[in-house]
Amino acid sequence: MAERTGVSLAGRASRAFGWSFANTLASRLGTLLIGVVLARVLGPSEFGIFAIAMVTLLAILSFNELGVSLAIVRWLDEPRSIAPTVNTVAVASSALLTAVVVLAAPWISTALGDVRATPVVQVLAASILINGLVATPAALLQREFMARQRMIADQLNSWLGALVSLALALAGWGAMSLAAGRIAGSVASAVVLLRWSPLPYRFGWDSTVARHLLSFGLPLAASSLVVFASGYADQVVVGATLGATALGFYALAFNLASWPVSIFSQPLRQVAPAALARLQHDPDAMRSTFVSVAGLLLAVAVPSCLAIAGAATPVVGFVYGEAWLPAAAVLAWLAAQAALRIWFELCYDYLVVLGRSRGLLAIQLAWFVAGVPAMLLGARLAGLGGVAAAQFLVTLVVVLGLYLWQLRRTGLRLTALARALWWPVLAGVGSGAAAFTIARLGLGHFAAGALAAAVACAVIGLLLLGQRRTLTLLRTEGTP
To answer: Tell me: the pLDDT tens digits for 21-79?
Structure first.
């Protein structure tokens, strides 16, 4: 699996990013209409019950295989020697966690606001085991920039899962329809990932390799768990303090706010760790590439996120209907926070490649410790909107500063980073202000949302036009 002769790392990474972006965009756009229908059919209460199950699942998936699969991506030598041990660790840990979730489902559901979520949590727990089974094949595809194959697997997962969920929802299955669809899509995707794995799937055990994997993976798994805790503590707070219906509103807003994260950050995360890892021999080139990618990423992400924040009411009203309008107060804050999340995820991957897993753990712990009291206070003072506002403020004030501190410790010059980012941030704020003004002109949900989107697209186009030299260099050379 050595790098192909005559094909540059930059070229492979660029093509992989293109496939990953198309994959994510097709998945999100393809399932949007189905998601809208499901939200309208199920309503906030049933949607909230499913949200309880999803929060549980995402918590476990954040550390499911103990972080060892990322060693496949980062491994400098041939991964064939470590893959069997990775498989053993990943499947054993996921099987244990699946059993724990099934047994603890009644307690988890009650703690998060509605005991009716118990069977949904138990069914969805099967995804934990499936995820562990395919952790190594997925990491191998990422390492080898096999984004086209990953796209097929992900599209099968998204489309089959959404269609099964829709059919069952229309048949009256309620929240269980979403869980059943998720399992159907996961199984089909797992079959494809196993089929296209660059290495044969087998189990094995090498105690020396296992010790190395766990020393690398456990701090990362702990960090990932705290990442989840800090990123999803708001939903836990809402479910526990305001109930499942409120969680339904909050989860819908969170899903909408996650659109830019999925479209812009997720494809990059399929490529960036492997590409940055192969620049470890040249720290200057690695830092330069990180700064350039950050500038391009935020040129698209910040205007998009802040436009959604400014036009939150028309977006929710047009897409999901008047019954879901309470979610708009949440979306305004969470969409603004999404711009920061996109930036943090790039920083996270960069720091992982540099082996700074303990520093990442410290950041996530601080996020959690500062965020939970703030969100509990926000829920008491202002309900749903108060929780979202508290989450955004902690992210802006505490977490941003900690990430900048960690980046500076790696030798990255913050002045160079500021030069790359100040213009996208300023233009994004202008895009958000314009969307906020448009939303209050009384144009109607569709017209206001469309006009705000047009302004954001114009801003993004101008920003990318100004960075065309960097785009060309990244495509052809790999480092600016």
So the answer is: 555 555 566 556 666 777 888 888 888 888 888 888 777 776 666 666 666 766 666 77
Phi, psi angle pair for 40, to nearest 5°: -70, -35
Residue 185 makes CB contacts below 8 A (sequence gap 6+) with 156, 157, 158, 159, 160, 161, 162, 164
Domain count, the chain: 1
* Residue 52, amino acid: I
pTM of the shown model:
0.74
**Distance between CA atoms of 268 and 474, rounded to whole angstroms?**
13
What amino acid occupies position 98? T
- Single out the residue of 149, 167, 170 nearest to residue 159, CA to CA: 167
Q: Is residue 114 part of a domain?
A: yes
Whether 401 is in a domain gets the answer yes
Does residue 4 lie within any of the structural domains? Answer: no
Q: What is the DSSP string of 378-438?
A: HHHHHHHHHHHHHHHHHIIIIIHHHHHHHHHHTT--HHHHHHHHHHHHHHHHHHHHHHHHH
Q: Which domain holds residue 448?
A: 9-476
